[in-house]
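SUBJECT: A protein chain and its fold
Encoding: whole-number codes for local backbone shapes
RECORD BEGINS BELOW THIS LINE
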Amino acid sequence: IKDTEGNPLPGVKIRLKDTDFSEVTTDASGVFQFINPPAGDQTLVIRGEAIPQEYIGPNKYFSSLEVGVTI
């Protein structure tokens, strides 16, 4: 995982939406890995301090991003 300038984002939490897989965390290089994830279309839920925050109401921000992938 990298920011818009290509810098790695360590410490970002990633999980596979609607699965029993444990959440993983990016390393110092922004790399993460799931071991034997279910095949097919999956949605990654990415969250962390480095993820841009979206304003969703008075004094409330949402710091999560969902990305579709095929495994």
User: Anything to note?
Assistant: The chain has a mean pLDDT of 77. Residues 36 and 71 are 10 Å apart (CA to CA).
